[in-house]
Amino acid sequence: MFRSFISAIFKRLPAKKVLAHCDGPCGVYDPASTRIAAEAVLSMTKKLLALNPPEGNDPTEWATYNNTFSRFVSVKEEQAQETKKELLILWTDYFKPEHLATYPDLHDTFWKAAKLCSACKVNIDQTKAEELMAAVEKIHHMFWKSKGRGDAWVTAS
What we know:
The protein is mostly helical. It has a single domain, classed as Nickel-containing superoxide dismutase (Four Helix Bundle (Hemerythrin (Met), subunit A), Up-down Bundle). 69% of the residues lie in helices and 0% in strands. It has 6 helices and no strands. The longest helix is centred in the middle third of the chain and has 36 residues, at 59-94. The protein is flat, with a radius of gyration of 22 Å.
């Protein structure tokens, strides 16, 4: 009853027109979160490739190995998805048509970077993870140059 009463009031009130240029009208964008996620993908890929299975049939050793392997894969896939999400936010919310004049390869760069995220999710391929980092670095430089800045590319590892 109360819900229908409140609903009826809201239906009668005029709604104000609200404008926003993107999903995040605050205008705060930074490719740093993209770099951090992509760097985690590379780190987990390296850890997976360095992980050696146990030599014998000891169930405890195999359980530990399988647990570690599964955790590394899980983090790698989560971070690849996070990288893709962050890339898509920059691509669709920050970059505008006027940026295409300065960066004619903008769409191709982002599209290929997003595809690399997918490749890193479904494979354990250090070359793809390194290519993803290179793509994210290129996007980092495009982003900061578009703001008239030249922020340095600094990685955590």
